[in-house]
Amino acid sequence: MTLTHATNSLQVEKLPLVSGVSLIEGKPAAGPSRDPMAFVSISPPSGDPIGVEFHAATLEDADAACRAAWRAFHTLANRAAEDRAAFLDRAATKIDALGDDLVAWACAETGLTPARIRAERDRTTYTLRMFAQVVREGAWVRAAIDLPEPNRKPTPRPDLRRMLRPLGPVAVFGAGNFPLAYSAAGGDTASALAAGCPVIVKGHPGHPGTGELVARAVCDAAAEIGLDPGIYSYLHAGGAREMEIGAAVVRHPCVRAVGFTGSFEGGLAIARIGAERPDPIPVFAEMGSTNPVFLLRHALQSQSDPIAEKLASSITGSNGQMCTCPGLIFALRDELTDAFLRRLATLLDHTPPQPMLNRRTLDTLLRRLGEVASVKGVELRAGQAGRAAALGGGTIASGPALYRTSLATFRAERRLHKECFGPVAIVVLCDTEQELVEGAALIQGSLTGSIFSGAMDATLAARVQSILEQRVGRIIHNGVPTGVEVCHAMTHGGPFPATNQPHTTAVGPLAIERWCRPVTYQNTPDQHLPVELRSDNPRRIERLVNGVPTREPA
Amino acid sequence: MTLTHATNSLQVEKLPLVSGVSLIEGKPAAGPSRDPMAFVSISPPSGDPIGVEFHAATLEDADAACRAAWRAFHTLANRAAEDRAAFLDRAATKIDALGDDLVAWACAETGLTPARIRAERDRTTYTLRMFAQVVREGAWVRAAIDLPEPNRKPTPRPDLRRMLRPLGPVAVFGAGNFPLAYSAAGGDTASALAAGCPVIVKGHPGHPGTGELVARAVCDAAAEIGLDPGIYSYLHAGGAREMEIGAAVVRHPCVRAVGFTGSFEGGLAIARIGAERPDPIPVFAEMGSTNPVFLLRHALQSQSDPIAEKLASSITGSNGQMCTCPGLIFALRDELTDAFLRRLATLLDHTPPQPMLNRRTLDTLLRRLGEVASVKGVELRAGQAGRAAALGGGTIASGPALYRTSLATFRAERRLHKECFGPVAIVVLCDTEQELVEGAALIQGSLTGSIFSGAMDATLAARVQSILEQRVGRIIHNGVPTGVEVCHAMTHGGPFPATNQPHTTAVGPLAIERWCRPVTYQNTPDQHLPVELRSDNPRRIERLVNGVPTREPA
After folding, report:
1. Among the listed ranges A134-148, A382-396, A527-541, which one has the minimum average pLDDT value?
2. Are residues A460 and A375 in the same domain?
3. Is the domain of B129 the same as that of B275?
4. For residue A419, what are the CA distances in angstroms to A146, A348, A442, A460, B24?
5. Is the pTM of this model over 0.90?
6. Which residues of B are less than 8 Å from A307 in CB distance?
7. What confidence category does residue B7 fall into, taking pLDDT thresholds of 50, 70 and 90?
8. Which of B432, B449, B477 is the last residue of a domain?
9. Of B231, B253, B287, the domain-final residue
10. pLDDT at residue B387 tops 80
11. Do A43 and A355 contact (CB within 8 A), yes or no?
12. B384 compared with A300, residue with greater pLDDT
């Protein structure tokens, strides 16, 4: 069996040059000439290092980046919203202009396909441009004005005006599985910058070259718009200093909020550091998700094969390394399900191993597969745990795996409730419809929950949905969970452990609200008010005046 | 010196009867006939117990209340929004109908004046009716619909619809200092019920009789509207079982969020219990606040006496036991400030001792006063720490105190940065305008910050404000922080330690959002959608359809 992966054709020696040092407010960090802590980026398909030495940021670099961000935060407050919008647009243009250089680096560093990387790049620049639009439009601040009533008895009513205000500098942790969309200039960075919060990125060690290219584009955009360069810094973080740099940034007094996408353990550790500060700050951590799928009888009756195909593709897309990969499948134990499972197993058995993002991700997957396989009552139905490890050489890859168990076993075994990050699903067979409903009640908090149903399944679908509404951020009917639209109505979030802040979304315009809090101005002279709250409403944004939405002056 | 307090005239034996047992889903808890854990309510002006024995809820009571709330949560989901609105309106009517019985109990149990209690009662019923209106109007769910694009390339865009959905049963901790507005049926209870979350109240031991009267009114309202009685339970909590009951409710799997108003230590303890659950739940804790006031030169030049009068009244109103009591006053060291201080000191010296809410509050105040007074460089300027203790008898009371110190001392002494809950303010004298600005940067997170300034102070006022925007939830110009309007533009919240959730407000319509999270429905058949998201928009609420606000069908 061989790796059928497009990145094999990319020649690492042809990658465009990166400096290997952090970017602190637009300038390369000094970096010791012979850094004993240097680290390398590994290309998963070959397992070989890419020939560039990266230098992890020093604690002094981190401090300088955070201080510059604090200064920039205050200069940014005096700039027009249009400047922020122009900056976001320009950053998108600059990233687009990186063209195939960026695709080559990202593919080499992550093993993801060029098609996937191009789609992710387009999503990233779309998000930057969307937030530029959100900033221009201006209503996102949720402005509300309650006019004074000087003659009210017993006491006059004061003039009260409220809007969302940015928290201050934000630290963003690059995600291993989204080298573009949740890293140097992804959703967290874009939404924080849109809110008026400078960003310090702690780069992911799995794709430092990709990160540096994007970071340079963002810094150049800031310079071209004439913004304070402290608005954005990128810290290389890898090797022995990786954890230290992340912790230093989260602890830094100038940092006021944190965005994290990654593992459950990593998210909890970062959240704990944020909570244990003398002045605790919010940490928005998106962690693990099992994305359960419920297959109802009449859906399988008419759509068994198409559903199996959709699910196989959803399980193995990006080799299962999506936060919305479907990891649990609940179905009734009957012949329909048997046939469905045969089809799904065949599809997965015919999916060749694909690269995993990095050694750590593969090791975690193999450990989780071992845990799942060791549960009495769990049976391997397709694929082969550890098969990829047998490929030999340094290849970092894995094929898919499909397990089958009963609801009784699932109920008893917490090991089956946790995410297996990779191309893996566990099918839970339920003896009755009541067991299927119980399955929904047993799952951990998750980003998504999917229900495949036919018209005749409506009653059961409603029961399952009413439980999923308590457990997930997004409910999908007759579709797979992968594919997260960037739009107003999206919720990319969910109850613990999917995230630690279930009232938020990491995707869509509302993601900007994470980096803000409401501030009320009482009896404040117009000259001291933010422009969005001034009586004449110079930006003509929609505001709530005495409870009524209007774009008119107050 | 004597207590000049209206509650002295209330005769405890004339108080209307309360049962002294908890109300579990509308019914009195069984309660052992001879409860060795019974507790009493103390009347602060006399220090004597009120002649009713209260029985703390048992752990079985707490469990029954939480389970009933979980059941009610699901039945409530099938009721029209109008039923919730009618329930809130009816509860307000029932509380109004308690008339002077309620005022008598609340005054007897808290030592607050009848005028204050009547105002607080009116605020409470206003809040209930406001949330009834919010629920009827319906736009609070923030509905957003992005319509499908089946022909989009490379993949079709699905149908996506999002709204806020209630979290589930909410535990509310009664506050000592607001026996009505933040207790059995106060802001947290009203906003949670409005969101569709049943409420379990853990009563405050300082005013159990008041709490029981209000709780009975709420239960009666639920019965009259025909709602599941599990929607509301009230747990008496005092004596040795107080902490145990609170912890049991916060740990209960059926409880999905917690509202707390009280001390810093209490809030942190509750938040920790919520965070350490296997499924962590949000705890919204409003804790301590110093509410700093900045006096700028030109304000004192023209308004010294009126400002002194406003501040004296704000410091001593409700005997300083308001979360927005001004506890820190920053001013320049000059003759204007000297004159202002003389006037403020005289006013405070002429304010007689008034009752404190309870022994615990008084003891905490005396300990904090001892801490403040022991700081080298702090001078007592008016009042006398511990003066009230000298009143003799069992009276629970305190007079005001005013301290003076320098910015240098304030900078060095963390003991001065924390709240003194009671009629106490510390004046911090600053040698320069720069020191005044530094003072703003030194304060802890606070609910409010006030700036008194004249037209000529505009530059300095802007500098102070730009720092307060990072530190407080509400900025007040030329006014005192006490007096929190219930309106759209209000933010009653702020950075840690004022609250642990600075993105929220505890007052005003937005308070409802604390008890919800967004849920997205993808490709969901109309019949499975909540009514607010259905295509025909039967409730004609304002929704964001493809990003545009509209009341039209989608």
Report:
1. A382-396
2. yes
3. yes
4. 48, 19, 14, 26, 39
5. yes
6. none
7. very low
8. B477
9. B287
10. no
11. no
12. A300
Q: Are residues A264 and A327 in the same domain?
A: no
> pLDDT tier at B33 (50, 70, 90 boundaries)?
low
Quick one: A238 and A365 in the same domain?
Answer: no
Q: A544 vs B496: CB contact, 8 Å cut-off?
A: no
Domain CATH for B224: 3.40.605.10
Strand boundaries in A168-269, DSSP class E = 170-173, 199-202, 232-235, 257-261
Residue A547 CB partners (closer than 8 Å, separation 6+): A146, B488
Query: With contact defined as beta carbons under 8 Å apart, do A96 and A254 qualify?
Result: no
For residue B528, give the nearest of A465, A487, A496 by CB distance. Answer: A465
What pLDDT score does A11 carry? 52
Domain-embedded: residue B363: yes
Q: For A305-339, write each residue's pLDDT tens digit.
A: 999 999 999 999 999 999 999 999 999 999 999 99
Q: Which residue range is the domain that position B212 belongs to?
A: 6-12+20-287
Same-domain pairing of B342 and B281: no
Average pLDDT over residues B262-268: 95
Please compute the mean of the pLDDT values over residues B91-101 and round it to a whole number: 97
Q: What is the pLDDT of residue A30?
A: 82
One domain, residues B202 and B327: no
Contact B521, A475 (CB under 8 A): yes
Q: Considering the domain boundaries, does residue A449 fall inside one?
A: yes
Pairing between strand A516-522 and B354-355?
A: unpaired
What's the whole-number average pLDDT of chain B?
A: 94
Residues A279 and A309 placed together within one structural domain of the fold: no
- What DSSP letter does each residue of B334-361 carry, written as one string? SHHHHHHHHHHHHHHHTSPPEE-S-HHH
Among partner residues A160, A485, A493, which is closest to B489 by beta-carbon distance?
A: A160
- Contact: A489, B165; criterion CB under 8 Å: no
Give the chain B residue whose CA is nearest to the CA of A458. Answer: B528
Mean pLDDT of B255-272: 96
Q: Count of A–B CB contacts within 8 Å?
A: 179
Domains in chain A, number: 2
Q: What is the reported pLDDT for A392?
A: 62
Tokens of B427: 């004046």
Strands B446-452 and A472-477 come out as unpaired
